[in-house]
Amino acid sequence: MIFAWAMQFIVIEWEVYSLTKDPLSLGIIGLMEVVPAVAMALFAGHIVDQKEKKALLFKCILAFSVISFGLFMLTWPRVVSGFSKGNILFGIYFLVFLGGIVRSFLGPSIFSLLSLVVPKKIYPNAATWSSSAWQMGAVLGPALAGFSISWIGVHWSMCLIFGFALVALLALTQISTKPILNPKIGEPIMQSLKEGLKFVWHTKAIFGAITLDMVAVLFGGAVALLPIFAQDILKVGPEGFGVLRAMPAVGSFITILISAYVPLNKNAGMKLLTAVFLFGVSIIVFGLSTWFWLSVLALLFSGMTDGISVVIRQTILQLKTPDNMRGRVASVNSMFVGSSNELGAFESGLTAKLMGTVTAVVFGGSMTLITVLATGWRFPTFRKLDLRKDLEEHEKG
To answer: Distance (Å, rounded) from C-alpha 237 to C-alpha 119?
Structure first.
């Protein structure tokens, strides 16, 4: 599913920029997905905590399949030959908007279902492997997207994505129905949402990690501008675009695989701050680079440092979230972190429009560095965060 989703987003980015040659249009793609994802996130978390997880995830993947088929039709020259460019763009943005609604339910459903599939005593390690599988999809999806655009075109690339979504749907049928562990079934929605937000706010480790990552990703969203770098600055075509787009996920995947054997629980707070700082440095290097392979290395390093952030943040969420609140906590996390990718895409597109592409990327990386320094200075207890004791208690439980 993640493979298909990552691939689809890249194909859409390429198609929209090819139609418009406007960097702001790339930002609009992110905005169209993030608005419904944020607006629906808390409501989705409440629903996930109240309903059976496998059935919800099945509906999410089915809806994604329908959206992919719609994009397949919208990129078919024979179908849209009588449509104006504006109408095609409107159709793409509309389907991306619907995808944002689906995504608001997807993340909490996966996060909650995982805890019902895996025994508690091995859950932290299993979640690391789950993140690895997630990153593998994020690696291979963009890479195949770049090459498939070159080999078979945008239209048939969308057909391929539709097929992958159906494979994900079939795989999900192999998981049995799981029990609902929330003792407050039928709880009023406002009370449920208030309880979830209150829990995140008072659990400072969760709140600090989510906030830091959100701001870093928001201002470090250089990947949204990769079609511009590939087509206009580095001039490497769709194959080079696929390589560039895959590099952050490759780096993250490498880090997550290593962390499955080398835990990051000791001095987790300081490691998280350092990782996000180095992420900002790599974004600045990428923005200033005019050499393709230096750009590749910068994006690879950004993925490696981001992978550390992902592992530490996910470990905090896993260890400190009770089963009956996983949907709501995951929804808050998606609002802060998941949606910040799309908000970052909009921020990058807007700043690129106003100050130029390279300046926008360097500005975003600089803001990431400032955020890390401010967080480390303002929250000294977060610098001292250590998860070893929490992990021992969780494994005993």
So the answer is: 46
339 has pLDDT over 70: no
Q: Do 349 and 337 meet the contact criterion of CB atoms below 8 Å apart? A: no
CA atoms within 13 A on the CB side of 74: 24
Q: What is the pLDDT of residues 214-224, one digit of tens each?
A: 777 777 667 77
Average pLDDT of span 187-199: 73
Token pair, residue 76, equals 């078919």
For residue 388, the tally of other CB atoms under 10 A from its CB is: 12
State how far the Cα of 24 lies from the Cα of 142, in Å rounded to an integer.
21
Question: Which of 23-27, 38-42, 158-162, 333-337 shows the lowest per-residue confidence on average (mean pLDDT)?
Answer: 333-337
CA distance linking residue 104 with residue 331, whole number of Å: 7
CA distance 141 to 161: 9
Collect all residues with Cβ–Cβ distance below 8 Å to 15 and sequence separation of at least 6. Answer: 75, 92, 154
What are the C-alpha distances in Å from 390 to residues 124, 309, 396? 11, 18, 10
Indicate the range of 42-51, 187-196, 197-206 predicted with least confidence.
187-196
Nearest to residue 221, comparing CAs of 396, 33, 4?
Answer: 33
End-to-end CA distance of the chain: 32
Class of the domain covering 2-174+188-396: mainly alpha
Phi, psi of 310 (to 5 degrees): -60, -45
Beta carbons of 8 and 158 less than 8 angstroms apart? yes
* Residue pLDDT, tens place only, 203-214: 777 877 777 777
Q: What is the pLDDT of residue 396?
A: 62
- Residue 28 and residue 348 in contact, taking contact as beta carbons nearer than 8 Å: no
Residue in this structure with the two tokens 């993640």, named with its chain if needed? 2
Of 80, 51, 31, the C-alpha closest to 221 is 31
For residues 16 and 25, is the Cβ–Cβ distance under 8 A? Answer: yes
- H-only helix segments in the chain: 2-20, 23-50, 53-74, 77-80, 85-117, 123-172, 189-202, 204-219, 226-228, 237-259, 268-288, 292-320, 326-333, 339-355, 357-378, 380-383, 388-396
Residue 397 reports pLDDT greater than 80: no
